[in-house]
Amino acid sequence: MSNKINYGIDLGTTNSAIARMENGEPTIKKTDIGKDTMPSCVSINKKKSVRVGQGAYNNLNSDKRRATKTWNSGDSNTFIEFKRTMGTDKVYESSFMNKEYSSEELSAEILKTLKSFITDDNFNSVVITVPAKFTINQKDATARAASLAGFDHCELLQEPIAASMAYGLDSKNKNGFWLVFDFGGGTFDAALLKVEEGIMKVTDTEGDNWLGGKNLDYAIVDEIIIPYLKDNYVLESILKDDKKREVLREAMKTYAESLKIQLSFKDSEDILSNLGDLGEDDEGEEIELDLTVTRDQVEPVIGPIFQKAVDICKDLLKRNDLTSSSLDSLILVGGPTFSPILRNLLSEQIMEPDTSSDPMTVVANGAALYASTINIPDEIQEKTRDKTKLQIGLGYEPTTVETEEFVTVKILKDKTEGEVPEKVFAEIIRGDNAWSSGKFGIDEVGEVMEVQLNVGKANSFKIHLYDEKGDLIPSEPGDFTILQGTSPGSETLSYHVGIAIKSKQKNYLVFTNILEKNSSTPLTGNTKYPLKTQKDLRPGIKDDFIKIPIYQGEHGADQTRADYNYHVTDIIISGEDINGFLPAGSDVEIIMKYDRSNTLSFSAYFPVLDYTHELERIEINTKGIKSDDLAKMISKAKQTVALIQEEEILDNSSELNKMKDELSELHKRFEQGKGDYDRREQVRDNLIKLLKRLDEIENLSEWPKIEDELKEVFHRLEQTNKEFGNEKSTKAVAQFKEQIPDVIKEKNVKVAQELTENMRHLDFALVDQGLGAQMEIGLLAQFNENFDSHDWSDRQKARMLLNQGLQMASDNPSKQQLRPLVLELYKLLPDVTNNPIKGDDSVLTD
User: Fold this and answer.
1) pTM listed for this prediction
2) What's the CA gap between 20 and 215, in Å, rounded?
């Protein structure tokens, strides 16, 4: 038994692999047919037997091609690429099982099969890799899949970190910036790492969860294979029918994928179908494929897709103030990175990629290396511990940049059944047999031994125990591994995590950040300022509740529209949860924690009640976007583009035309596959990116108004400070004055709005302090003078409150006496002055 996990799994979109640490080396464990990787494919037959891997993939190809004979794809009981819908409510229907499978359940079948390839060990802990751009929802789903596969403990590791560990162990380059280019079957990740003396730190990540080998396959289908068929067969009615067209595309994809792989290693490839494999055209002629495709023909088809990934990398470097010359290594991950077309693009635009590691297995190997550094939890170890053997405890640093490391060895008498010899001696032997500690005595207190390490290696050590006579004592664990020269450091958060609130400055829900992207995990964050409730919560009343929507967002997400980010879940706090009456306008402080196991916890503190509502683990939302909602988003984007064009907001017409073309293409893709879950999510992600760009353009058009407001509020504050200010407020005004020129120069809308709001708060506080009750009396006079022009929600109550206030005003009241009455009057207005946004009053506001 080992106290380390030692097993790593690369759970891929199209292919998966498992690796194990053996004698200090990560070793890929062969599949049932002797290959390094296995297709991530699940097939079910009529006898309700589940088949996984290559056999299932063969069934998939047969099913897809056979479907062209009936033009019905619903008969297939074979599934692939379900990784792209992890963390959603997408289901895959098996008619043979009369059951719907979730993505997690199908992924669990892959994990169980990989686990079955290990025939000499019974293990229940594993490291599973995930794309760096996987959302919290997707990570949570991956952990659930591991649990369904029977693993008691699962650690998730970002794929770029895994690849970097495997690469870094053998690399002579232990310093500088590394860029991991991970182009998989269904996702693309780019990760920028800073390496110092072998210690790796992820600086930033970017990617696209809908960009991968699948996109290359469909491009070949649409641009090469379908045109060939149109030239040789009559397909007009087939291509006009959405369902038939998709059946045809799916069948052709099986040939395109094989072509793509072959053209990575040779200049041309034949596409040949077997007689009877495919259906008939509109005139009853049997469809056959017999064409030769060259790499030169494919380059203009798949080159632009690869270019998207290259552009993502260039943008990643740019926002980190780096150039291609700043990089020391470019590491390739994923089968498509074998393509010379891609490698040429990278060499020309970024740098020559390092090809020393196998892109297909580097992630699984890195996962095993990482697994060798992670302890199996004590409660899991207890299940597999052989207490008839003498149990020992080992203490050491699993990764180091030093050439020597201290190891503590002690006897765990309470974990051992049977008699423990009075004297016990230990010997540590390095795996290459070139170093040994010699025998040294150990006891329950522990003994420290300094071990010698080989540089740039995973150093494996055996540990043997002996009694006083020199006889070997059966013991466990019997080995351990120390990585010299490389360390993964802490994993970083790939997204900003925060909540949606109503903002005084916006007429929509905005994302406010709590946990920062690229921060090392585990981490804790809280709201930067107290938020407020909008309505009363009565204790014990379930229908009285506040809603706190949790979102995660990309780079620059703070203060953007909440619905332009990824919804995680909604936290509901009702009257049944609180310990007293919570009035509207109460302060709330939100705290979030994200731990190493990718668990997100939440707490909301209500100072007025001195009460904290805590959730140790947030339940994740799995709902995907509906077709109707996506159609509305597309319509909104078109309206925004039209407005920008009409008002001539954007000087660069080519940029606007480019966005219009992108929007048209997204709309076309949506209409072609609105019933396809994968297609909707892909369109949504790309549409959000476009909507964010349109928002930025619209904000620029608002700048003149925002600048005027900024100056006006500042000048008013200056006058207020002269009349009512003090030393502290004068200093604050001077700071505002110093900030304003830079904000105007940069035309930073978000900062300008925040600065304006801060100055308003100070102005109000000074007036409030200086005038006493005069401000409230003035407001009552204004309400009375314009009473009939206001659309009061309760006219009779408003008149009563106003009369009461005017009567109090004649008796020289304090502002504390009049303030609650004035606020009650404001609540009776159609728009609350403090928050002009109509709509959901259950969310928090600033």
Assistant:
1) 0.80
2) 32
